[in-house]
Amino acid sequence: MKTLSNMLVSLAAISLLAACGESPGERAVSGAGIGAGVGAVGSAIVGGDPLTGALVGGGVGAATGGLTKKKDLNLGDPIWK
After folding, report:
1. Per the domain annotation, does 21 fall within a domain?
2. How many Å apart are CA 75 and CA 43, to the nearest integer?
3. Cystine design at 10: which of 1, 42, 48, 78 (Cβ 3.0–4.6 Å)?
4. Range of 38's domain?
5. Residue-wise pLDDT tens digits, 57-67
6. How far apart are CA 23 and CA 8, in angstroms?
């Protein structure tokens, strides 16, 4: 049960943080980076494989960032601009 709740919290964090940027491409890249970090840390905390967590988190973050619009989730300009 604890693992499930940790995964849900991680997925919620990825969803909230994934969409930084102007274009869908920028949002997908920033979402992938943020998702990979959250996935790796979350997986390490629950005793899983951080690489698997990073891959899953990166995929979910990229999809969330690429499929959302700026008006849906706007956390400002990406740090590279």
Report:
1. yes
2. 25
3. 42
4. 8-67
5. 999 988 988 88
6. 27
